[in-house]
Amino acid sequence: MTYTLQLYVSDDTTPAQRQAAERLFRKALESALGDAALVAPVYLAYQAIVARYGDTPDPEALTVEERTVLEHWQLAETAAIEAVFGPHRHLDEGSYQIDLPA
């Protein structure tokens, strides 16, 4: 399953810079998860957990499998965000959106 990624970055970012940042984000995300093919299923599972338990679920309320998915996604997301925006980024510096085919 494939996915599309859109980074939301500052308005003064050139298209080439945005594309380079998106490649860097993808590479870090896919590397942290172990393979590009894992992004979509792990992201879908993460979204299901958040839909069921909220944006910051209590780890004690999760099953072992849910906790594993949540932790893996959060670590991969952090790695990708840090790869593009740096480890000391501010929330208003940029964000991302992942879209999956229907």
UniProtKB/TrEMBL annotation:
This is Uncharacterized protein.
